[in-house]
Design a protein that fits this description.
Blueprint: H1 11-14, H2 20-28, E1 31-35, H3 39-51, E2 55-60, H4 77-81, H5 86-97, E3 102-107, H6 115-119, E4 124-127, H7 132-145, E5 149-155, E6 158-164, H8 172-175, H9 188-191, H10 195-213, E7 223-228, E8 233-238, E9 266-271, E10 276-281, H11 289-296, E11 301-304, E12 309-315, E13 318-324, E14 330-333, H12 338-348
Helix pairs in contact: 3-10
């Protein structure tokens, strides 16, 4: 789109006292990495590109599927028919929305070996992910590189978000010292998800991003925002007192980047000749099979005893069998691809 004034498309945004022409010019010069382009990520990407953030790197490991269309606003049935990766499908839509923004789609699984390469050259990191392992990786890297980031998550009808500015606010590990054990936290596949809840929390993230990138750090939210749209509840949880814990926080105080260094998180092993991958945790935990089975029964067949849990799943015509052990380790039969096994594990077991 050509106009005599390249800023004209942002004229309504520039009328906000907190942005103006100077703030808009800062947005146009800004660079962002979006980690994940699913429900949260598509709303975020749409908002940032329309607002004129100059460079948006979109990193996602997955492909567009029919169940995505209920809440992932940049995708349509054509993307499914063309079997497009989410990052590429999103980039195609976004370039039609704003051709002046540079969109860099990357189809990759973000892990501790590549996250620094994906984020070292940007001004802000945004959490569009669906698992805690990636969030703790982002937190480690953001503190290490002194880059702001915005966390969010949404499951069921509930969402939450907090903004982390290294040196100014508590970090994720100040607030949530440890990730939930496998099976403890619900996922979209096991607990469902309300599309409007995702939209609300992701747009809150986007607003925080625009404050940071336009130079309005004083305006950022310094609480943990928690909302439940079904129960009509909105809460702000004060996290400022946790700044006192920063002296003991292993990440922002002691600068131990345990997730980046591989002390926490998952690891995979392809089982030769079995079309199966083992997913295990570097630090084991104890699963509650009864609770896990209850959440999985909405998605497939489940049986268990005190030694193991078996879960059979038909996902988009592909058959998988999970064998889950009490320490959180799982053998996923039906794929020999580690990345696919990690995706399935995150979706159905959690973490």
């Amino acid at each position: 789109m050509q106009t005599t004034d390249p800023l004209e498309r942002y004229s309504r945004q520039m009328r906000l006292p907190g942005i103006g022409k100077a703030g808009q010019e800062r947005l146009l010069a800004s660079r962002v990495t979006l980690c994940g382009c699913g429900a949260l990520g598509t709303v975020l990407a749409n908002a940032l590109v329309r607002a004129g953030v100059g460079f948006v790197r979109i990193v996602d490991r997955d492909f567009v599927e029919p169940s995505n269309l209920q809440r992932q606003v940049l995708f349509d049935e054509t993307d499914i028919a063309e079997n497009l990766p989410k990052a590429e499908a999103a980039a195609r839509k976004l370039r039609q929305i704003n051709s002046t923004v540079t969109i860099e789609p990357i189809v990759a699984d973000i892990n501790r070996s590549n996250i620094e390469d994906l984020c070292h050259d940007v001004d802000l990191i945004l959490d569009g992910s669906d698992n805690f392992e990636l969030r703790y990786l982002i937190n480690d890297l953001a503190i290490k590189l002194s880059k702001p980031w915005v966390y969010a998550g949404a499951v069921g009808s509930e969402g939450m978000s907090m903004t982390i500015v290294p040196g100014q606010t508590p970090c994720l590990r100040c607030v949530f010292e440890a990730a939930p054990a496998p099976g403890e936290a619900g996922t979209c596949e096991t607990a469902g998800v309300l599309g409007p809840a995702v939209g609300v929390i992701a747009n809150f993230q986007a607003a925080e991003a625009l404050k940071i990138l336009s130079g309005n750090l004083a305006a950022i939210n310094r609480d943990l925002l928690v909302l439940n749209l079904w129960d009509n509840i909105i809460r702000r949880v004060r996290i400022a007192p946790l700044a006192g814990r920063k002296g003991k926080c292993p990440c922002c105080a002691l600068r131990r980047f345990e997730w980046l260094e591989g002390e926490h998180g998952t690891q995979t092993t392809t089982l030769c000749g079995r079309n199966a991958v083992q997913v295990s945790h570097r630090r084991s935990s104890r699963l509650d099979f009864e609770t896990l089975a209850q959440s999985l029964r909405t998605s497939g067949s489940v049986t268990y005893n005190k030694f193991l849990l078996k879960f059979q799943l038909n996902e988009n015509g592909e058959f998988y069998e999970f064998t889950v052990f009490p320490d959180g380790r799982a053998i996923i039969k039906g794929t020999s691809e580690p990345d696919k096994a990690r995706i399935l594990y995150a979706r159905y077991v959690g973490y």
